[in-house]
Amino acid sequence: MLAGTIVAMVVLMIPMAIVWVATGHDLNDSGKDGSIFGNTNADLFFNLAGLALLIPVAGFAAWWIQRRRPGTLLSVTGRIRWRWLLACCGLSLAFLGLSYGLSVAAGLAGGDDGGDDGHWVGWGKFLVTALIVLVLVPFQASAEEVVFRGWLVQAVGAYTLEGRTAPFARALSRVLRTPWPGIVVAGGAFAVGHDYTGWGPVDIFMFGAILGWLAVRTGGLESGMAVHTFNNIMSFLVPAALGTLDLEQGSVGFLPVLADVTALAAYALAVVWLARRMGITNRTPAAEGPQPQDTPSQDTPSQSTQSAPPHADGHSVPSLPDGQAAAPYQGGHPIG
């Protein structure tokens, strides 16, 4: 339902635009000081809390406009798979270690001697910032996963041009039936939503694209939520401890981006491996209920036990009403 998706996009964009402007992003003057309250902690709280509100907004858009359960934004089971999320948190800790090591190596290779890296600000100042970060970042990072790797990937994937007979439409349909258009579009939108310059947009795009691919491969957002949350927590806490926390997003060099993408690619491979070991499915659960009396014999699979039609690359998508899309499916600086 194209009209429903367009309305849902508007519903999602309104709070995103409000947060964008309120946090100091001026399209006509990108060099302006982005502080709202003149206090870093207050600005940080407002920024993170505003983004976290996208979770109920996205859920409402799915329920009211697209007529489907909000849980379908999270995974093929319609909910967060907590055991799988916990496993991804363990992998995310390993990602942080690898990312830090590669970032240090990139800095040394680039001639960064770590000159003025700040100094310990003391427990009094640090604990206030740490409390804000630890409480709000999990919701902020999860909100961005729900919007970009959940809702947007699904919205793009809803339109496959299936049934079109024109040669060009049939050729385009073969592409649209794969998850890649949604992954690329969502990754691009995620990059546009950040102010990094230099190689920074490439870093953000690759982050979004890799997590979008993981959402499809694992059938849910858990792996993205985990690594996004841990990455942002550390990316806020370390500069906060050293008195160098700055919410402005600046230029990023090639070597730090290479370190980020390499660490995230390793995380993605580990996630796919662990998902296979744990039997994590990317298919919609079979419908349950009493079978009719004229059910075919046990040797013949019944329609009620068939999974949703798979993408062209073999990854399945959940079945949703009205042609809607299926459920799903930055080391060194905060993504988001």
TrEMBL record:
Domain CAAX prenyl protease 2/Lysostaphin resistance protein A-like as annotated: residue spans: 130-234
InterPro entries recorded: Rce1/LyrA-like_dom
Pfam families xrefs: Rce1-like
The organism's place on the tree of life at top rank: Bacteria
Stretches for region Disordered: 283-336
GO MF terms, alphabetically ordered: endopeptidase activity; metallopeptidase activity
Ranges of Low complexity composition bias in the record: 290-310
Record key words, sorted: Hydrolase, Membrane, Metalloprotease, Protease, Transmembrane, Transmembrane helix
Residue spans crossing the bilayer: 7-24, 44-64, 84-108, 120-139, 198-216, 254-275
Gene Ontology biological process terms in this record: CAAX-box protein maturation; proteolysis
Protein name: CPBP family intramembrane metalloprotease
